[in-house]
Protein backbone atom coordinates (compact mmCIF):
# COMPACT_ATOMS: atom_id res chain seq x y z
CA UNK A 1 0.00 0.00 0.00
CA UNK A 2 1.58 3.35 -1.03
CA UNK A 3 2.69 5.64 1.72
CA UNK A 4 0.40 8.64 2.29
CA UNK A 5 2.31 11.86 2.57
CA UNK A 6 1.11 14.42 5.12
CA UNK A 7 -0.59 17.52 3.74
CA UNK A 8 1.26 20.62 4.92
CA UNK A 9 -0.86 23.07 6.85
CA UNK A 10 0.05 26.72 7.13
CA UNK A 11 0.53 27.99 10.69
CA UNK A 12 -2.58 29.72 12.01
CA UNK A 13 -0.83 33.07 12.40
CA UNK A 14 0.26 33.07 8.74
CA UNK A 15 -3.20 32.50 7.22
CA UNK A 16 -4.69 35.94 8.11
CA UNK A 17 -1.57 37.68 6.77
CA UNK A 18 -1.75 35.68 3.53
CA UNK A 19 -5.44 36.51 3.14
CA UNK A 20 -4.74 40.19 3.65
CA UNK A 21 -2.04 40.07 0.97
CA UNK A 22 -4.39 38.22 -1.37
CA UNK A 23 -7.02 40.92 -0.87
CA UNK A 24 -4.42 43.61 -1.51
CA UNK A 25 -3.37 42.00 -4.79
CA UNK A 26 -7.01 41.51 -5.80
CA UNK A 27 -7.63 45.20 -5.16
CA UNK A 28 -4.86 46.03 -7.64
CA UNK A 29 -6.65 44.11 -10.41
CA UNK A 30 -8.34 47.37 -11.40
CA UNK A 31 -6.75 50.68 -12.31
CA UNK A 32 -6.60 53.30 -9.58
CA UNK A 33 -9.03 55.59 -11.42
CA UNK A 34 -11.52 52.73 -11.79
CA UNK A 35 -11.34 51.91 -8.09
CA UNK A 36 -11.92 55.54 -7.17
CA UNK A 37 -14.85 55.81 -9.58
CA UNK A 38 -16.42 52.62 -8.23
CA UNK A 39 -15.94 53.79 -4.65
CA UNK A 40 -17.60 57.11 -5.35
CA UNK A 41 -20.49 55.49 -7.25
CA UNK A 42 -21.14 52.91 -4.53
CA UNK A 43 -21.01 55.69 -1.93
CA UNK A 44 -23.82 57.45 -3.81
CA UNK A 45 -25.81 54.20 -3.87
CA UNK A 46 -25.27 53.74 -0.12
CA UNK A 47 -26.47 57.27 0.64
CA UNK A 48 -29.58 56.76 -1.50
CA UNK A 49 -30.30 53.44 0.23
CA UNK A 50 -30.18 55.10 3.65
CA UNK A 51 -32.76 57.60 2.45
CA UNK A 52 -35.21 54.88 1.44
CA UNK A 53 -34.38 52.50 4.29
CA UNK A 54 -32.89 49.87 1.98
CA UNK A 55 -29.82 47.68 2.36
CA UNK A 56 -26.93 48.56 -0.02
CA UNK A 57 -25.07 45.32 0.69
CA UNK A 58 -26.62 42.69 0.11
CA UNK A 59 -28.94 44.71 -2.12
CA UNK A 60 -32.17 43.39 -3.53
CA UNK A 61 -32.61 43.57 -7.34
CA UNK A 62 -35.73 45.69 -6.83
CA UNK A 63 -33.65 48.19 -4.82
CA UNK A 64 -31.02 48.43 -7.56
CA UNK A 65 -33.67 48.80 -10.25
CA UNK A 66 -35.29 51.63 -8.30
CA UNK A 67 -31.90 53.33 -7.86
CA UNK A 68 -31.14 53.07 -11.56
CA UNK A 69 -34.52 54.64 -12.35
CA UNK A 70 -33.73 57.41 -9.84
CA UNK A 71 -30.46 58.14 -11.64
CA UNK A 72 -32.25 58.42 -14.98
CA UNK A 73 -35.03 60.61 -13.55
CA UNK A 74 -32.46 63.02 -12.08
CA UNK A 75 -30.77 63.54 -15.46
CA UNK A 76 -27.80 61.19 -15.28
CA UNK A 77 -26.41 60.07 -18.62
CA UNK A 78 -26.32 56.46 -19.79
CA UNK A 79 -22.55 56.21 -19.27
CA UNK A 80 -22.89 57.39 -15.66
CA UNK A 81 -25.68 54.91 -14.99
CA UNK A 82 -23.55 52.11 -16.45
CA UNK A 83 -20.73 53.10 -14.10
CA UNK A 84 -23.01 52.93 -11.05
CA UNK A 85 -24.36 49.54 -12.08
CA UNK A 86 -20.82 48.23 -12.61
CA UNK A 87 -19.77 49.56 -9.19
CA UNK A 88 -22.66 47.85 -7.42
CA UNK A 89 -21.84 44.59 -9.19
CA UNK A 90 -18.13 44.84 -8.39
CA UNK A 91 -18.68 45.51 -4.67
CA UNK A 92 -21.08 42.59 -4.35
CA UNK A 93 -18.72 40.22 -6.17
CA UNK A 94 -15.80 41.35 -4.02
CA UNK A 95 -17.87 40.61 -0.92
CA UNK A 96 -18.75 37.13 -2.20
CA UNK A 97 -22.42 38.02 -2.53
CA UNK A 98 -24.91 37.43 -5.32
CA UNK A 99 -24.76 40.16 -7.96
CA UNK A 100 -28.13 41.93 -7.92
CA UNK A 101 -27.42 43.73 -11.21
CA UNK A 102 -27.58 40.39 -13.03
CA UNK A 103 -31.29 40.06 -12.24
CA UNK A 104 -33.68 40.56 -15.15
CA UNK A 105 -35.50 43.33 -13.24
CA UNK A 106 -32.33 45.43 -13.27
CA UNK A 107 -31.32 44.52 -16.82
CA UNK A 108 -34.78 45.40 -18.15
CA UNK A 109 -34.70 48.74 -16.35
CA UNK A 110 -31.28 49.57 -17.84
CA UNK A 111 -32.45 48.58 -21.33
CA UNK A 112 -35.54 50.76 -21.00
CA UNK A 113 -33.44 53.74 -19.87
CA UNK A 114 -31.09 53.34 -22.84
CA UNK A 115 -34.03 53.34 -25.24
CA UNK A 116 -35.50 56.39 -23.50
CA UNK A 117 -32.50 58.67 -23.02
CA UNK A 118 -30.16 57.21 -25.64
CA UNK A 119 -26.54 56.17 -25.25
CA UNK A 120 -24.76 58.81 -27.33
CA UNK A 121 -21.81 60.30 -25.47
CA UNK A 122 -20.97 63.99 -25.80
CA UNK A 123 -17.61 64.11 -27.56
CA UNK A 124 -15.14 66.91 -27.06
CA UNK A 125 -13.60 68.75 -29.97
CA UNK A 126 -10.21 67.50 -31.18
CA UNK A 127 -7.31 69.92 -30.82
CA UNK A 128 -5.92 69.43 -34.32
CA UNK A 129 -2.49 70.61 -35.45
CA UNK A 130 -3.90 73.95 -36.57
CA UNK A 131 -5.77 74.36 -33.29
CA UNK A 132 -2.64 73.55 -31.29
CA UNK A 133 -0.70 76.18 -33.24
CA UNK A 134 -3.30 78.79 -32.29
CA UNK A 135 -3.21 77.69 -28.66
CA UNK A 136 0.56 77.80 -28.19
CA UNK A 137 0.71 81.26 -29.77
CA UNK A 138 -1.25 82.45 -26.73
CA UNK A 139 1.13 80.90 -24.19
CA UNK A 140 2.82 83.67 -22.17
CA UNK A 141 6.47 83.92 -21.25
CA UNK A 142 7.63 82.61 -17.87
CA UNK A 143 8.02 79.22 -16.24
CA UNK A 144 4.33 78.36 -16.18
CA UNK A 145 4.07 79.28 -19.84
CA UNK A 146 7.03 77.10 -20.78
CA UNK A 147 5.46 74.21 -18.90
CA UNK A 148 2.10 74.69 -20.58
CA UNK A 149 3.67 74.90 -24.05
CA UNK A 150 5.63 71.68 -23.45
CA UNK A 151 2.58 69.92 -21.99
CA UNK A 152 0.30 70.85 -24.90
CA UNK A 153 2.84 69.97 -27.60
CA UNK A 154 4.00 66.71 -26.03
CA UNK A 155 0.44 65.61 -25.22
CA UNK A 156 -0.51 66.23 -28.84
CA UNK A 157 2.65 64.79 -30.47
CA UNK A 158 2.50 61.56 -28.48
CA UNK A 159 -1.33 61.31 -28.44
CA UNK A 160 -1.16 60.86 -24.68
CA UNK A 161 -4.04 60.38 -22.31
CA UNK A 162 -3.98 63.04 -19.63
CA UNK A 163 -3.18 60.47 -16.94
CA UNK A 164 -0.18 59.30 -18.98
CA UNK A 165 1.02 62.86 -19.49
CA UNK A 166 1.13 63.75 -15.79
CA UNK A 167 2.61 60.34 -14.87
CA UNK A 168 5.76 60.96 -16.92
CA UNK A 169 9.06 61.11 -15.02
CA UNK A 170 12.39 62.33 -16.36
CA UNK A 171 13.57 58.72 -16.26
CA UNK A 172 10.85 57.89 -18.81
CA UNK A 173 12.47 60.14 -21.45
CA UNK A 174 14.97 58.38 -23.70
CA UNK A 175 16.96 60.65 -25.97
CA UNK A 176 17.40 59.56 -29.58
CA UNK A 177 19.03 61.25 -32.62
CA UNK A 178 15.62 61.94 -34.19
CA UNK A 179 13.73 62.91 -31.06
CA UNK A 180 12.61 61.42 -27.77
CA UNK A 181 11.22 57.98 -26.93
CA UNK A 182 8.65 58.08 -24.13
CA UNK A 183 8.40 55.03 -21.89
CA UNK A 184 4.81 54.72 -20.67
CA UNK A 185 4.93 52.54 -17.59
CA UNK A 186 1.20 51.91 -17.32
CA UNK A 187 -1.84 52.93 -19.32
CA UNK A 188 -5.50 52.19 -20.00
CA UNK A 189 -4.54 49.50 -22.52
CA UNK A 190 -1.64 48.19 -20.41
CA UNK A 191 -3.06 47.60 -16.95
CA UNK A 192 -0.42 44.95 -16.16
CA UNK A 193 2.39 47.47 -16.54
CA UNK A 194 4.28 45.71 -19.34
CA UNK A 195 5.29 49.14 -20.60
CA UNK A 196 4.85 50.88 -23.96
CA UNK A 197 7.10 53.12 -26.02
CA UNK A 198 6.14 56.15 -28.12
CA UNK A 199 8.51 57.92 -30.48
CA UNK A 200 8.18 61.72 -30.56
CA UNK A 201 9.98 63.28 -33.56
CA UNK A 202 11.79 66.59 -33.11
CA UNK A 203 9.54 68.09 -35.77
CA UNK A 204 10.08 71.19 -37.85
CA UNK A 205 6.78 73.00 -37.19
CA UNK A 206 5.44 72.41 -33.68
CA UNK A 207 8.83 71.19 -32.30
CA UNK A 208 7.57 69.32 -29.22
CA UNK A 209 10.99 68.03 -28.13
CA UNK A 210 12.43 71.55 -28.18
CA UNK A 211 9.57 72.81 -26.01
CA UNK A 212 10.05 69.93 -23.54
CA UNK A 213 13.80 70.55 -23.23
CA UNK A 214 13.22 74.26 -22.72
CA UNK A 215 10.81 73.59 -19.85
CA UNK A 216 13.07 71.06 -18.12
CA UNK A 217 16.08 73.37 -18.39
CA UNK A 218 14.22 76.45 -17.17
CA UNK A 219 12.67 74.59 -14.23
CA UNK A 220 15.96 72.79 -13.48
CA UNK A 221 14.21 69.43 -13.43
CA UNK A 222 16.66 66.53 -13.67
CA UNK A 223 14.64 63.77 -12.01
CA UNK A 224 11.13 63.00 -10.81
CA UNK A 225 7.89 64.28 -12.36
CA UNK A 226 8.18 66.08 -15.68
CA UNK A 227 5.13 68.31 -15.31
CA UNK A 228 4.72 70.12 -11.98
CA UNK A 229 2.79 73.01 -10.46
CA UNK A 230 4.37 76.47 -10.59
CA UNK A 231 3.24 78.94 -7.93
CA UNK A 232 2.63 82.64 -8.48
CA UNK A 233 6.13 83.44 -7.28
CA UNK A 234 7.64 81.18 -9.94
CA UNK A 235 8.67 78.36 -7.60
CA UNK A 236 8.41 74.88 -9.09
CA UNK A 237 6.83 72.22 -6.88
CA UNK A 238 8.31 68.77 -6.36
CA UNK A 239 4.84 67.27 -6.85
CA UNK A 240 3.31 66.30 -10.19
CA UNK A 241 0.35 67.98 -11.87
CA UNK A 242 -3.02 66.26 -11.61
CA UNK A 243 -4.81 65.00 -14.71
CA UNK A 244 -7.50 67.60 -13.99
CA UNK A 245 -4.82 70.26 -14.51
CA UNK A 246 -4.28 69.04 -18.08
CA UNK A 247 -7.93 69.66 -18.92
CA UNK A 248 -7.78 73.11 -17.30
CA UNK A 249 -4.68 74.06 -19.31
CA UNK A 250 -6.20 72.90 -22.60
CA UNK A 251 -9.42 74.79 -21.93
CA UNK A 252 -7.53 77.95 -20.89
CA UNK A 253 -5.56 78.20 -24.12
CA UNK A 254 -8.49 77.14 -26.29
CA UNK A 255 -10.39 80.10 -24.88
CA UNK A 256 -7.37 82.39 -25.31
CA UNK A 257 -7.27 81.34 -28.97
CA UNK A 258 -10.87 82.45 -29.41
CA UNK A 259 -12.39 78.97 -29.27
CA UNK A 260 -15.29 77.67 -27.18
CA UNK A 261 -13.49 76.22 -24.15
CA UNK A 262 -16.50 74.07 -23.21
CA UNK A 263 -15.89 71.97 -26.33
CA UNK A 264 -12.35 71.02 -25.28
CA UNK A 265 -10.91 68.70 -22.65
CA UNK A 266 -7.69 66.90 -21.78
CA UNK A 267 -8.64 64.22 -24.33
CA UNK A 268 -8.72 66.85 -27.10
CA UNK A 269 -4.93 66.61 -27.57
CA UNK A 270 -5.05 62.85 -28.16
CA UNK A 271 -8.12 63.10 -30.38
CA UNK A 272 -6.53 65.97 -32.27
CA UNK A 273 -3.43 63.95 -33.15
CA UNK A 274 -5.54 61.10 -34.53
CA UNK A 275 -7.77 63.45 -36.51
CA UNK A 276 -4.79 65.38 -37.91
CA UNK A 277 -2.84 62.24 -38.80
CA UNK A 278 -5.73 60.60 -40.62
CA UNK A 279 -6.62 63.84 -42.43
CA UNK A 280 -3.00 64.02 -43.61
CA UNK A 281 -3.30 60.53 -45.08
CA UNK A 282 -1.27 58.67 -42.44
CA UNK A 283 -1.57 54.89 -42.47
CA UNK A 284 -3.99 53.67 -39.79
CA UNK A 285 -1.49 51.14 -38.43
CA UNK A 286 1.13 53.88 -38.12
CA UNK A 287 -1.37 55.96 -36.16
CA UNK A 288 -2.04 52.97 -33.91
CA UNK A 289 1.69 52.73 -33.15
CA UNK A 290 1.41 56.13 -31.54
CA UNK A 291 -2.03 55.89 -29.94
CA UNK A 292 -1.61 52.23 -28.90
CA UNK A 293 -5.21 51.46 -29.79
CA UNK A 294 -5.69 47.70 -30.02
CA UNK A 295 -8.62 47.75 -32.44
CA UNK A 296 -8.73 49.45 -35.84
CA UNK A 297 -12.46 50.01 -35.38
CA UNK A 298 -11.74 52.39 -32.49
CA UNK A 299 -10.16 54.83 -34.95
CA UNK A 300 -13.07 54.71 -37.37
CA UNK A 301 -14.96 57.54 -35.65
CA UNK A 302 -11.90 59.77 -36.04
CA UNK A 303 -11.45 58.72 -39.66
CA UNK A 304 -15.09 59.52 -40.45
CA UNK A 305 -14.63 62.99 -39.01
CA UNK A 306 -11.32 63.62 -40.78
CA UNK A 307 -12.75 62.59 -44.14
CA UNK A 308 -16.31 63.82 -43.68
CA UNK A 309 -16.16 66.08 -46.76
CA UNK A 310 -13.93 63.93 -48.98
CA UNK A 311 -15.88 62.77 -52.03
CA UNK A 312 -19.10 63.87 -50.39
CA UNK A 313 -22.20 62.48 -52.12
CA UNK A 314 -23.57 65.96 -52.65
CA UNK A 315 -20.35 67.60 -53.77
CA UNK A 316 -21.48 68.00 -57.42
CA UNK A 317 -24.86 69.53 -56.76
CA UNK A 318 -24.84 71.25 -53.35
UniProtKB/TrEMBL annotation:
Pfam families: Phage_integrase. This is Tyrosine recombinase XerC. Residues 16-96 form the Core-binding (CB) domain. Gene3D superfamilies: 1.10.150.130, Intergrase catalytic core. Keywords: DNA integration, DNA recombination, DNA-binding. The gene is xerC_3. Residues 122-318 form the Tyr recombinase domain. Signal peptide: none annotated. GO terms for molecular function: DNA binding. GO terms for biological process: DNA integration; DNA recombination.
Amino acid sequence: MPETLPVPVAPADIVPVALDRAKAYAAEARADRTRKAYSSAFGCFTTWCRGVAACPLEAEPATVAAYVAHLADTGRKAATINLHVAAIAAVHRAAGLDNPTAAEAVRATVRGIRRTIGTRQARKAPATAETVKKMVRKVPDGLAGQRDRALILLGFAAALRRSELVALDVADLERAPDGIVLHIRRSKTDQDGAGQEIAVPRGSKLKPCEALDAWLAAARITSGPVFRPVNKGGAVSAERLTDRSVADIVKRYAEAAGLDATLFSGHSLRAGFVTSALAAGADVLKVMHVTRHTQVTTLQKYDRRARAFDDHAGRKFL
